[in-house]
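Hi all, posting the design record for the shared folder.

TITLE: backbone redesign
STEP: 1 of 1
STRUCTURE INPUT:
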């Protein structure tokens, strides 16, 4: 769907405001992208330090395996529900300045999360040995030694489970208020803490050259948990500055509880499928690979998610509170007009400002995701040669090339799912995104069986797992776009289709050309630099193609400013932190208490 030309728009205040909102989205997303890039570069450096200090041997495999368990438990139990719930629940109250409602709802969410996750973390610590025994072992590793190492790490990682929940609630509160800076900064502190733990572990193990001591393993394990604390606990300060009083409780009013169940159930459905795929991939990596395959797989994933996190996530993050508020506003207006069939979720299609925002933001995410895919394809060989200077990562480059197409589906699953949740189409969002993650499981199993049937084949297993993930993400992307079209009308996909039709071929050609050139360079340093610079050039070519396909898409990201909205320019604490007020709405609304301060 395209925004009508100005000459054909009705003379309503939201017309110019919608364009201003798109420009504001670009400014805020650009700032968040810059902060995210800094934190992701440091996070990438953390993986490099891990490869250098921990390596890819028995301890690294046990560490990587155990480190997945708290995250999987958190995500399956409440993570999906939280990710889908906090922002849309709070966005309307924040926009209307109902501060007491914000505090009450956030406190109830926090209370429920801690009531569930604290006992779960305790159970993980107490049952570490049997849980470790359930996890598969790699070929060439003493099974008893690996189980003991995994169990020891699990006891140290158990505290991460409630810390993850606390962090997501606090992040949701901040994002609902248009505060994106702190959630982008705390990963920097987390990475610094974890890298310090890696360095200390390396110093404690280097002099002996033998098996690491209990003290060294404790530094590695507890240092990682301290990194999760650094990711979550600092967020309490900016939340308190907003005037949100968090007093954990278990009380939710009935309408809010019903919406929590609806949104949370949708998120949980998708996350169960996602975490099932994570567990399956972990098992397949061990079954088909060798002792270091899990660690190399995680290094590969760190490279894979870098363009996703830096390019796609900032756009989706900035737009999500606005989508939630816009759809809620239109639904409220429909109720006030006593027309229960009206509103954005009932066929408003391209007449709805909320659906216009959904259409344009999905196209923007699609454009930057294709650019990221081109970067992966171009830089994959250079990334393998870079990591190879530190440890054995054979198969990483080929795996990244196979993963590249799936990045587009991965990003579209994120954005289209959020649009559907904001439009109160939770069931459609749940099943569409779950379909993609569910498809990863059989696709990965089949690929590993075909490419590494006898086990002990690390590089082949990495490529097979990449093929399985790409298959699932393509399925998921197609499913969520189809669900979005059913909810908002076929026109909602028009900008995205135009962008993909022209930018995908450009990404394939540019990325493949740079990849081939980097393979022809014998010197590692030159190949790495060529891959990095070529990746940037490929991304620029893709964005140029996207702009040619639909100038308003990339223009929304590039345009540095615009006319003041109907209420004039507004500056808030968020604007001071992030360089611009990220909450200029498509339509005028009352200033909140938080804005006036």
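Okay, here is what came back for every position:
SEQUENCE:
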């Amino acid at each position: 769907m395209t925004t009508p030309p100005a000459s054909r728009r009705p003379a309503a205040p939201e017309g110019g405001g919608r364009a201003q909102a798109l420009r504001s989205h670009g400014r805020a997303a650009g700032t968040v992208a810059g902060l995210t890039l800094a934190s992701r570069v440091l996070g990438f450096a953390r993986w490099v330090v891990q490869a250098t200090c921990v390596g890819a041997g028995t301890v690294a495999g046990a560490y990587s395996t155990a480190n997945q368990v708290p995250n999987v438990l958190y995500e399956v139990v409440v993570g999906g529900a939280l990710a889908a719930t906090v922002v849309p629940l709070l966005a309307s109250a924040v926009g209307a300045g109902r501060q007491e409602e914000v505090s009450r709802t956030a406190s109830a969410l926090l209370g429920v999360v801690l009531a569930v996750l604290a006992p779960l973390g305790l159970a993980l610590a107490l049952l570490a040995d049997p849980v470790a025994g359930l996890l598969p072992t790699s070929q060439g590793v003493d099974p008893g030694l690996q189980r003991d190492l995994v169990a020891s790490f699990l006891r140290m990682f158990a505290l991460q489970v409630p810390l993850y929940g606390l962090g997501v609630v606090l992040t949701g509160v901040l994002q609902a208020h248009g505060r994106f800076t702190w959630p982008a900064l705390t990963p920097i502190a987390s990475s610094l803490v974890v890298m310090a733990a890696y360095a200390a572990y390396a110093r404690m193990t280097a002099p002996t050259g033998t098996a690491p001591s209990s003290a060294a393993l404790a530094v590695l394990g507890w240092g990682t948990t301290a990194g999760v604390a650094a990711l979550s606990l600092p967020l309490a300060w900016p939340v308190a500055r907003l005037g949100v009083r968090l007093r954990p409780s278990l009380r939710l009013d009935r309408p809010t509880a019903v919406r929590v169940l609806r949104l949370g159930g949708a998120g949980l459905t998708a996350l169960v499928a996602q975490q099932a795929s994570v567990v399956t991939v972990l098992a397949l990596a061990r079954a088909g690979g060798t002792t270091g395959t899990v660690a190399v797989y995680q290094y590969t994933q760190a490279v894979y998610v870098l363009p996703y996190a830096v390019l796609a996530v900032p756009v989706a993050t900035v737009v999500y509170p606005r989508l939630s508020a816009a759809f809620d506003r239109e639904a409220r207006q429909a109720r006030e007009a006593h027309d229960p069939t009206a509103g954005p979720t009932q066929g408003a299609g391209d007449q709805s400002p909320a659906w216009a925002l959904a259409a344009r933001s999905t196209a923007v995410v699609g454009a930057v995701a294709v650019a990221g895919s081109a970067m992966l394809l171009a830089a994959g060989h250079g990334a393998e040669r870079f990591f190879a200077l530190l440890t054995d990562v054979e198969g990483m480059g080929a795996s990244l090339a196979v993963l590249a197409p799936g990045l587009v589906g991965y990003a579209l699953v994120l954005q289209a799912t959020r649009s559907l949740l904001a439009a109160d189409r939770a069931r459609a969002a749940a099943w569409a995104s779950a379909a993609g993650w569910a498809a990863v499981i059989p696709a990965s199993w089949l690929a590993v069986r075909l490419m590494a049937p006898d086990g002990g084949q690390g590089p082949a297993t990495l490529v097979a797992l990449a093929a399985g993930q790409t298959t699932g993400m393509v399925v998921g992307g197609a499913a969520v776009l189809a669900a979005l079209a059913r909810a908002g009308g076929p026109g909602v996909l028009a900008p995205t289709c135009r962008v993909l039709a022209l930018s995908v071929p450009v990404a394939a050609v540019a990325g493949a050309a740079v990849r081939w050139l980097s393979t022809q360079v014998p010197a590692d340093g030159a190949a790495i630099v060529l891959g990095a610079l070529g990746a940037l050039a490929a991304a620029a070519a893709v964005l140029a193609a996207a702009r040619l396909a639909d100038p308003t898409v990339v223009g929304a990201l590039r345009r540095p400013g615009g006319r003041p909205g109907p209420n004039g320019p507004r500056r808030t604490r968020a604007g001071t932190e992030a360089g611009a007020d990220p909450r200029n709405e498509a339509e005028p609304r009352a200033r909140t208490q938080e804005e006036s301060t």
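COMMENT: The chain has one domain: 23-338+351-557.
Let me know if anyone wants the other runs.
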